[in-house]
Amino acid sequence: MSLLVPDIAPSAFETTVLNAPMLTVVKVWADWCVPCKAIAPRIEQLAARYNGLAQFYALDAKQDLDFVKVTLKVASVPALLCYRNGELQVAYFGPNSANMLEEYLSHAIDRTAVPA
Question: Which of 3, 6, 18, 60 holds its CA 20 to 30 A away from the CA of 39?
Fold first, then answer.
């Protein structure tokens, strides 16, 4: 668990993510997933850079596979899901997902509010 990217349980998803007051990123991962481990430091960097402007959470897919597959519609990890006002805005999958997330965040959040 990380302070910048805390773990979230499926049971807390609605109250924590869908009712969040700001853009929220959920990293869906698995401990056996090598690309998940590879992008983890980059997600931490993005969480630090956008601290106060976006919330970041980590959801271990093995906690509830049905929730991940059926509710979130995630078939592979790593997955990065971006929510705003309770709606999924974008979803990125695979080892390049951190780069795609960074590009999205740079446009989704007012650039003047983001430190260089």
Answer: 18
Domain with residue 94: its CATH number is 3.40.30.10
Cα 6 from chain centroid (whole Å): 10
**In which domain, by residue range, is 42 found?**
10-109
Percent of the chain, pLDDT > 70? Answer: 93
* 30-78 confidence digits (pLDDT tens): 999 999 999 999 999 999 999 999 999 999 999 999 999 999 999 999 9
- Residues with catalytic annotation? 33, 36
Secondary structure element (H or E) that encloses residue 13, with its range:
helix 13-13
Beta bridge partners of 87: 84
The total number of structural domains that make up the chain: 1
Predicted TM-score (pTM) of the model is: 0.91
